[in-house]
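Aim 2 progress update. The chain analyzed this quarter is reproduced below.
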Amino acid sequence: MVDGGVCLTHPSGKIRRVVFLMSIMYEVQPMPVLLSFLLGIFSMGFQLLGSRLLNPWFGSSIIVWAFIISFFLAAFSLGSILGGLLARLSGHWKDRWLLVVAGVAVMAFAFNAVFARALLAWLDHWSAPLPVLLGLTCGVLFLPPVCALAALTPLLIQRLSENGMTAGFASGVIYCTGTLGNIAGIMLTVFLLIPHFPVSVLLWFWTAGVAVTAIFVLRCLRG
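Predicted structure tokens:
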């Protein structure tokens, strides 16, 4: 097999492959990659927690899932553009807004842990149409925390690119590990967490986990 005029089965071709793989490993900084993985876990795992949270009041019909998925996708989109705008800032302004976004993420998850059931019980007395109630519920409970988490992804990409990685490769690495985190979050939540713990406990676990992750994100992006 020939690559760029050099036979890969030839010793020189094998050396080229080893050097290429070593250069990739050197470029990939472990902390941003690990944080992207954790953000993926908390984002998509929370979607399943959200469905369990809404189930006693709204059920689990396809309409409910349509609203949940749509609002999570909207949160990912809004968070991405927000993170892109934050990446354009520099100095103290960037640090301040980064702290605000991390704080919003933690407080929004804490809000779910403390007030979600009370909010749902209150909305249960409304006589509004189902789409209105679902939209209001998903907008209040799911949009802020997921949007704040998603805003951190472009900043992790920027961090990798600042360390010498090309922007395209940095995007690929972060989105790859974030998607793997999404898969892990789904599997862990479905098969390990929900069967053994009540949703109220898991919401506090999510709050604590996001708080710890946010601290490391701040240290990584400021370092």
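Confidence is low (pLDDT under 50) at residues 17-26. The CA atoms of residues 2 and 53 lie 56 Å apart. These observations will guide the mutagenesis experiments scheduled for the next reporting period.
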